[in-house]
Amino acid sequence: MTRLVVVGAGLMGEAIFSGLLASGWAPADIVVSDARAERRAELSERYGVGSGEAVDAVADAQTVLLAVKPADVGGVLEEIGDRLAPDALLLSVCAGVALATLQAGVREGTPVVRAMPNTPARVGEAITAVSPGTHATDDHLAEVTEILGAVGRVITVAEKYQDSVTAVSGSGPAYVFLVAEAMIEGGVHVGLPRDVATELAVQTLFGSATLLRDTGDHPAILRENVTSPGGTTAAALRRLEDHGVRAAFLAAVEAARDRSLELG
Ligand SMILES: NC(=O)C1=CN([C@@H]2O[C@H](COP(=O)(O)OP(=O)(O)OC[C@H]3O[C@@H](n4cnc5c(N)ncnc54)[C@H](OP(=O)(O)O)[C@@H]3O)[C@@H](O)[C@H]2O)C=CC1
Ligand SMILES: O=C(O)[C@@H]1CCC=N1
């Protein structure tokens, strides 16, 4: 049996299976299936993994990772839903797609887990929230935790939180990259060479995230530590508040949550 068959080897599918390879999985444990034969061939060549048509590959899979766009899920499940091996596990990372929809697309009794990872999986620093379906046991959750734990941290949440999780951590890297872009542009605006501004911004984000995670201190405390009375940071934060940055983040997360609900 193939340990993992990836159906939809785009950005997220590749991020996960390449992370698994980096963590020590053998290429022979993985088969990738994508809509385009050239993409399958390219991935097979680059990583040494197997490749094939989804409809054939899933019949021999221990776990099927579903990583196609939400709009393609219905068609893909029609194609592969009744081809999964009787005890195979379906693991979906598709935004907004509910466990009920996934379970309705496979044979009765098939274990299903819904998950929301993020692209830092590419460097082993993802955070993934998983929600087990009706027939997923602790052993299935352990298998999912082993797969997604190879590319970062894993937490379990009730399915009702998945759309909100998507809005915070699934989409979250994009918010951070936007902040990075803006900080770099700010540096260039005040006269720094672009490469210097980039190094300063990237290491500042990395260092700040590490400080936040490793100390466990509340972000407000860490922000206060940087903010000298009447100093430079206070002047900058005043401008950010004037421009409604905090409110913009609240609205953005809410919009992402609502869009996830719509996608489902
Ligand atoms: N990108 C992200 O940050 C995150 C994405 N997700 C979720 O992951 C899923 C994939 O997203 P992402 O990787 O960004 O999207 P991509 O478009 O990069 O990947 C989807 C892949 O699925 C392929 N595909 C389409 N139809 C089929 C089919 N019938 N059989 C096999 N493969 C097929 C596509 O091929 P082709 O290009 O030829 O159409 C494409 O390579 C989405 O559901 C998304 O919600 C979850 C967390 C984070
Ligand atoms: O933008 C999206 O819909 C996907 C889901 C989370 C991140 N990317």
Structural overview:
α6 links the parallel β7 and β8. The chain has two domains: about 160 residues, Rossmann fold; about 90 residues, ProC C-terminal domain-like (ProC C-terminal domain-like fold, Orthogonal Bundle). α8 packs across α9. The two termini are about 30 Å apart. Helix content is about 55%, strand content about 15%. The longest helix has 22 residues. An eight-stranded mixed beta sheet has the order 3-2-1-4-5-6-7-8. The protein is built from twelve helices and eight strands. With about 260 residues, the chain is α/β, with parallel strands linked by helices. The structure holds NADPH dihydro-nicotinamide-adenine-dinucleotide phosphate and (2S)-3,4-dihydro-2H-pyrrole-2-carboxylic acid. The site of (2S)-3,4-dihydro-2H-pyrrole-2-carboxylic acid has 4 residues, from α7. The site of NADPH dihydro-nicotinamide-adenine-dinucleotide phosphate has 27 residues, from α1.
The H-and-E topology, N to C, reads as EHEHEHEHEHEEHEHHHHHH
The strand order across the widest sheet is 3-2-1-4-5-6-7-8
What structural category do the secondary elements indicate? Answer: alpha/beta
Overall CATH class of the largest domain: Alpha Beta
Poorly predicted parts: none
Please tell me the overall pLDDT.
96
**Strands, total number:** 8
Report the portion of residues in β strands.
5-15%
> How is the CATH topology of the largest domain named?
Rossmann fold
Instruction: Tell me which CATH architecture of the largest domain applies here.
Output: 3-Layer(aba) Sandwich
Overall form: elongated
What hetero molecules are in the model? NADPH dihydro-nicotinamide-adenine-dinucleotide phosphate, (2S)-3,4-dihydro-2H-pyrrole-2-carboxylic acid
Radius of gyration from the CA trace? Answer: 21 Å
Number of domains: 2
CATH superfamily of the largest domain: NAD(P)-binding Rossmann-like Domain
